[in-house]
Amino acid sequence: MKSYIMAFIVGGTICLIAQILMDKTKLTPARILVMFVTLGVILGAFGIYDKLVDIGGAGATVPLPSFGNGLAKAVKKEVTEKGLLGAFTGGIKGAAGGITASIFFGYIMAVIFNPKTKK
């Protein structure tokens, strides 16, 4: 039960921060999303985001900063294995699964449902 509460608190806090930024600043949602991914990369590079995942579980792994954290981990791994070249290939390898799933499921939804234009 405690893990559900912590996931709710951590995930809710991340969403709350995004909502406050949308309501109180002139930042567009796209810029906020990019900012969250970048923040995830920075926190992941220093190993801080993993501690947040330990505390919040799915509340920290589902939001966008987790995508940035995954990119940071993949780049660090590739750099240790392949040197400087890994800085360029690590992010691609780290993001490949998520991007592939997004394209696949987006295609499936487009086939199943009939999109309509807004009037």
Q: Can you put this structure into words, describing what you see?
A:
With 119 residues, the protein is mostly helical. The chain has helices at 2-24, 29-45, 48-56, 58-61, 64-82, 86-112. It has one domain (2-112). It contains 6 helices and no strands. The longest helix is centred in the last third of the chain and has 27 residues, at 86-112. It is globular. The mean pLDDT is 90.
Mean pLDDT: 90
Gyration radius from CA atoms, angstroms: 17 Å
- Residues in helices, as a percent range: over 70%
Number of helices: 6
Name the structural class.
Answer: mainly alpha
Number of domain units: 1
* Biggest sheet layout: none
Distance between the termini: 45 Å
Order of helices and strands: HHHHHH
